[in-house]
Design brief:
The chain is mainly alpha-helical and 456 residues long. The protein folds into 3 domains: 100 residues, Fumarase C, Chain B, domain 1; 216 residues, Up-down Bundle (Fumarase C, Chain A, domain 2), CATH 1.20.200; 91 residues, Ribonucleotide Reductase Protein R1, domain 1, CATH 1.10.40.30. The strands form 3 sheets. The protein has a two-stranded antiparallel ribbon with strand order 1-2. Strands 3-4 form a two-stranded parallel sheet. α8 links the parallel β3 and β4. The longest helix is centred in the first third of the chain and has 36 residues. The two termini are 61 Å apart. The mean pLDDT is 94.
Length: 456
């Protein structure tokens, strides 16, 4: 039987099922290198402060390096009986270097130890995810750059509204991803404070140097309240909130790609590498990647709700409930990394069917607002112009004509202000390119925006 490192208080062994039920080592193994990173800095600080000897600190650090090598090589055997990553590593350390290994835990608790581990881990994952977000932004910009001449229908209520550049549509998603990057960068700056030294909840009686350890581990500073230090999981909740918003954005784009790749829209073609077929219908090409990303959005939302529910009634300070923070966080990290990685690659390879988009943009009276704007420029108040064009559209519906197909006499049934120059205002190009203000869909505006993005 493995001896518990905390077992001095107890006279009976832990029930085997209780060990299995309460153990977290099954999912905490990914924290191994971070636990050792934090422990090495802590050991060095103990030696610098004279709390243990420098020789003892060096011996502990050497032992931790050996354990890290075994973890990286897949040779480390983890024990459920030792509960978590911290106890497994500490037990291995004592087994390898003897009783001096037990001095590592001086001036700290598993409570502040896990808090620093998870921050170190999340910080690295955030840096990786920020890189994935940059690649996603680049993929959207690349799509916009190479398809500047393509006009598509813009929609509200999924009804044809006004023509827009496909490039403008892609850059709308780039705006969303940019906000996601900004949110994540804000979070990284906010949570990059070191909780180590908070002890179990009240700090420590030993003369530790928290600021030195924080600098050693790359933190911007130290947390300021020991109770909050060990009980704070705001950063995990905030990360999952960021992830939920990100997945919502990817899900919206997924929905459009799914629609656009259908035979009914036929706006795009996804690469075969990102689609699958049907076991019974040989003609099918299913957009599985965007469908799965759309589906995985729900699990990320669920992880956020799990963490919020987990923390909502916990008294200060640490409670065992908080062990349940890791699986939702880990799953969220894995999900968004996979989604971003595959989505960026899929967007880069996506082929746009510009002719089909143009045909669709010409349907549904998409230039009706341009007729209203034309009438306003001729001196008609907008509300009256709106009524004029509404009647014009009703006439088009009844006669089966589109707005550009009307004769001048037909136009003038509804307003004598309309003249021959109306035809220059109701083409798709005229409608798009008239919207030149910053943020508009005109090619001129989109090119300015692309230039700004490339120079920033």
């Amino acid at each position: 039987m493995i001896s518990k490192l905390w077992g001095g208080r107890f006279t009976q062994p832990t029930d085997k099922f209780v060990e299995e039920f309460t153990a977290s080592i099954g999912f905490e193994q990914r924290l191994g290198s971070y636990d050792i990173q934090g422990s090495k800095a802590h050991a060095e600080m103990l030696g610098r402060q004279g709390i243990i000897s420098v020789a003892e600190a060096q011996q502990i650090i050497a032992g931790l390096d050996e354990i890290l090598s075994d973890i990286e090589a897949g040779k480390m055997e983890f024990s459920v009986a030792l509960e978590d990553i911290h106890m497994n590593i500490e037990a291995q350390l004592i087994e390898r270097i003897g009783a001096v290994g037990g001095k590592l835990h001086t001036g700290r608790s598993r409570n502040d130890q896990v808090a620093v581990d998870i921050r170190l881990y999340l910080r690295d994952e955030i840096d990786t995810i920020l890189d994935y977000l940059k690649k996603m932004e680049a993929a959207l910009i690349q799509q916009a750059e190479k398809n500047l001449d393509i006009i598509m229908p813009g929609y509200t209520h999924l009804q044809t509204a006004q023509p827009v550049l496909y490039s403008h549509h892609m850059l709308a998603y780039r705006e969303m991803i940019s906000r996601d990057s900004s949110r994540l960068s804000d979070l990284r700056a906010r949570f990059n404070l070191m909780p180590l030294g908070a002890g179990a909840l009240a700090g420590t009686t030993f003369p530790i140097d928290r600021e030195w350890t924080a600098e050693k581990l790359g933190f911007d500073g130290v947390t300021r309240n020991s109770l909050d230090s060990v009980s704070d999981r705001d950063f995990a909740i905030e990360f999952c909130s960021f992830a939920g918003i990100l997945m919502m954005h990817l899900s919206r784009l997924s929905e459009e790609l799914i629609l656009w790749s259908s035979a009914d829209f036929n706006f795009i073609e996804l690469s075969d590498a990102f689609c699958t077929g049907s076991s019974i219908m040989p003609q099918k090409k299913n957009p599985d990647v965007p469908e799965l990303v759309r589906g995985k959005t729900g699990r990320v939302y669920g992880n956020l709700m799990s963490l919020l529910t987990l923390m909502k009634s916990l008294p200060l300070a640490y409670n065992k409930d908080m062990q349940e923070d890791k699986e939702p966080l880990f799953d969220t990290i894995d999900t968004i990394k996979g989604s971003l990685k595959i989505f960026a690659a899929m967007v880069v390879e996506m082929k746009v069917k510009g002719d089909n988009m143009r045909v669709a943009a010409a349907r549904g009276f998409s230039t009706a607002t341009d007729v209203a704007d034309y009438c306003v420029r001729k001196g008609l108040p907008f509300r009256q112009a709106h009524e004029v064009v509404g009647k014009t559209v009703r006439y088009c519906v009844e006669t089966g004509k589109d707005i550009p197909e009307l004769s001048l006499d037909e136009f003038r049934q509804f307003s004598e202000l309309i003249e021959e120059d109306i035809y220059a205002s109701v083409t798709l190009e005229a409608s798009v390119n008239a919207r030149k203000a910053t943020g508009g869909t005109a090619r001129e505006a989109v090119e300015r925006e692309l230039a700004r993005l490339k120079s920033s």
